[in-house]
Structure formats: C-alpha cells, structure tokens
Amino acid sequence: MPGELIPITLFICAAALIIGIRYLSNKEKMAMIERGIDPGLRKATPMPFLSLKFGLLMIGAGLGLIVALLTTRAILTNLDAEKGQAVAIYFGCIFIFGGLGLVISYVIEKKWLDKQP
Predict the structure, then answer these.
(1) pLDDT, averaged in runs of 10, over the chain (117 residues)
(2) pTM (predicted TM-score)
(3) Alpha-carbon span 41 to 20, nearest angstrom
(4) CB–CB of 53/105 below 8 Å?
C-alpha cells in the first residue's frame, strides 16, 4: 500500500508546485501593473559577458579533467593507492580549475568595464 502512494503523492505535489508558481507569478505581475510598472521590463537586462564566463568555465573544467587524469595516473600507478582518492582528485581539480576560469572571466570583465567612460 505505501509503495503505491509514492507515485500518486509525487504527481500531486508536482502539480501543486507548478500551479502555485504560476499563481504567484500572476499575482506579482498584476501587482506590478496596478502600480504602473511594466512587468516585462526587468526581463530585458542584457548579460554581455555570459558566453565568456561559460566558455572560460568549460575550459577550466576541461583543464581540470586533464590535470586530474595525469595526476591520478602518476599517483595511483606509483603508490598503488585507493580508487576513492582518484574521485577526490577529479572533483578537486574540476572545481579548482573551473573556479580559476571564473576568476579570469571576472578579471577580464573588470578591465573592460574600467575602460568604459
């Protein structure tokens, strides 16, 4: 009996969540219209460096994978370490190099914005 209630409950909760989000979004837009604010205005904000940010993040993650591969092959063959350490090395390198990609993106954006009058 309880195993049959799980999919039913999941479907009901998902439907209620979608309906609730739509209802609250509609109420927010109606309140903005009553105050004289255009509800579509805030969605038009451009993000000029988004592709640069994602590109450098992907490059950093790729470099992290390559460094992790080389590191695990060098360490695990010589020291005969556990396989769990290899997973930690992979995740660590991916996050470190991905973060470095985002920092480089920030530095490039900052330099470009400082040049603007």
Answers:
(1) 82 96 94 86 71 90 89 68 72 91 91 84
(2) 0.58
(3) 23
(4) yes
